[in-house]
Design a protein that fits this description.
Blueprint (H helix, E strand, L loop, with lengths): L6 H14 L2 E2 H4 L12 H11 L3 E5 L5 E5 L11 H20 L4 H8 L3 H13 L3 E6 L2 E6 L16 E3 L10 H8 L21 E5 L2 E11 L4 E9 L7 H19 L2
Antiparallel strand pairs: 1-3, 2-3, 4-5, 6-7, 7-8, 8-9
Helix pairs in contact: 1-3, 4-5, 4-6
Length: 262
Amino acid sequence: MQKEKNYPSFLKTLNRLEITGPVYKKDFVKNRNSQHWNLSEADTVIDKLWRAGLIKISRDHAFRKIIEANKVDAIPKLIDIRTEKLKLSRELLLQVLNNLGATTKSDLFRNISIHKSLFEQAFDEAIQTQEISEIPIEGENYYMLSNDLPFFTETSIQPRNCALLTPFDNLIQDRIRTQRLFGFNYKLESYIPNSMRIHGYFALPILIHGEIVGTVDLRFNRRERRLDINRLVWRDKFKNNNCCLNILCDLLGDLEDFVTNQ
């Protein structure tokens, strides 16, 4: 129904019936000039609403039709699909920003995956309502949730965290963004032949102080309850990676404690 050109008439008729209550069809629909065997536009609307279960039709003792809006809670009201799409697009846009943190408009659009016109309208509305804010980073315009601005300070943005990232982590799931931010061309190699793998079947990027320093491919030895390293690849093989190795050992120790206790 929402795809038909008469959709606005469906909304108008249903709203009128909700206000009017039960009413004789002959008093609600005027068809004085219509041909006997042809349904008028108003009759077509009534028929569509009835077939959709949104109204019910009964008859009195004289067999006259009585129509009324169906009050069953399980039947949803007709909605303005464009308004709903825009509302959902804004909610999705804010959720993606929450996941990505500070990001460019092009990155945001690529991650939200909706029609460009809806994205532009939702983006403009979020800017106007100050739900998102523009911030300059290294000469480029980035955007983030306005509620996160208090955390965006000179001290708090210094990366100190160390972590093993899954291939689907919000930080790196957009490979184009990962390449730009970290200069790291990461690919999940689970679906390519073993002989062609560089990092391993399910290699985890190693994040240390804001840099991806390498990847580690792990395997859990269930019999011995031990976490084994299948492959460790440093990005810079000629660099002294002992400091990173010590941090990685701590991360792997925590991970091994977690998986062995499951």
